[in-house]
C-alpha cells in the first residue's frame, strides 16, 4: 500500500504559514549579547586580579601559621623569612638562638612568591637575618609582635592586607579597601 506524503505547511504554531525569526529579531539578540559581554568582560578581569592578590595574602597567612605550628611540633626555633626585594617568603629552621650565622639555607616549605602587583609597604617588629626580614617563632609558639602590610590594585581601587602577629604567635589578617 502506497501512501501519499502531504507537502502542506503545518499551521500549528506558525502565524500565516511563516515560521522562524526575522532578521531584525536576530540582530536585536546579537546586539544585546554584545552589550552584555562589553559590560561583563572588564569586571571579570578585575575580579581575577583581585582574586590573585587575595589568594596571595591568604597563602602568606597560612605559611606564617604553619611556621608557628612547625616550631611547636618540632620543638625548634623557626623563622618566617620575607625577602622584600623578590617579594618571596619561606620557612626556615634556626639551630638555637637566631643569629645571622645560625639560619639554615634549606627551605622547610618551598619558597612562595606574592602575586603580581603586590607590594610590601610596611614592616614593623621584624628581625634582620642576613638580607632577609624574619619573624622568629620559639618552640612554645611565642613570637615578637610584628605588623606588616601588603598593598595592591584591586577592583578599581587599592586594597591593603594588614598582618598582625601577636606575642602568643597568633596571626590575624585584615583586608582594607580604599576607593580611588
List keywords for this structure.
alpha+beta, five-stranded antiparallel beta sheet, four-stranded antiparallel beta sheet, 180 residues, minor pseudopilin epsh fold
Structural notes for this entry:
This protein is an alpha+beta fold. The protein has one helix and nine strands. The protein has one domain: minor pseudopilin epsh domain (minor pseudopilin epsh fold, 3-Layer(bab) Sandwich), CATH 3.55.40.10. The strands form two sheets. The chain has a five-stranded antiparallel beta sheet with strand order 3-2-1-6-5, covered by helices on one side. A four-stranded antiparallel beta sheet has the order 4-7-8-9, covered by helices on one side.
Question: How does the SSE layout of this entry go?
Answer:
Layout: H1 23-74, E1 77-83, E2 88-94, E3 103-113, E4 119-124, E5 127-129, E6 132-137, E7 146-154, E8 157-165, E9 171-179
Antiparallel strand pairs: 1-2, 1-6, 2-3, 4-7, 5-6, 7-8, 8-9
Amino acid at each position: 500500500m502506497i501512501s501519499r506524503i502531504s507537502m502542506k505547511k503545518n499551521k500549528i504554531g506558525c502565524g500565516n504559514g511563516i515560521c522562524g525569526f526575522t532578521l531584525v529579531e536576530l540582530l536585536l539578540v546579537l546586539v544585546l549579547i554584545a552589550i552584555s559581554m562589553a559590560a561583563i568582560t572588564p569586571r571579570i578581569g578585575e575580579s581575577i586580579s583581585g582574586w590573585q592578590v587575595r589568594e596571595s595574602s591568604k597563602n602568606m597567612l597560612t605559611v606564617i601559621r604553619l611556621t608557628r605550628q612547625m616550631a611547636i611540633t618540632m620543638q625548634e626555633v623557626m623563622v618566617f623569612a620575607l625577602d622584600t626585594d623578590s617579594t618571596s617568603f619561606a620557612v626556615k629552621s634556626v639551630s638555637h638562638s637566631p643569629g645571622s650565622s645560625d639560619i639554615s639555607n634549606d627551605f622547610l616549605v618551598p619558597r612562595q612568591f606574592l602575586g603580581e602587583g603586590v607590594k610590601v609597604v610596611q614592616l614593623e617588629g621584624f628581625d634582620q637575618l642576613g638580607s632577609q626580614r624574619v619573624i622568629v617563632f620559639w618552640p612554645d609558639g611565642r613570637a615578637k609582635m610584628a605588623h606588616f602590610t601588603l598593598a595592591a590594585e584591586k577592583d578599581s581601587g587599592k586594597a591593603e592586607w594588614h598582618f598582625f602577629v601577636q606575642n602568643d604567635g597568633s596571626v590575624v589578617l585584615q583586608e582594607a579597601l580604599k576607593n580611588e
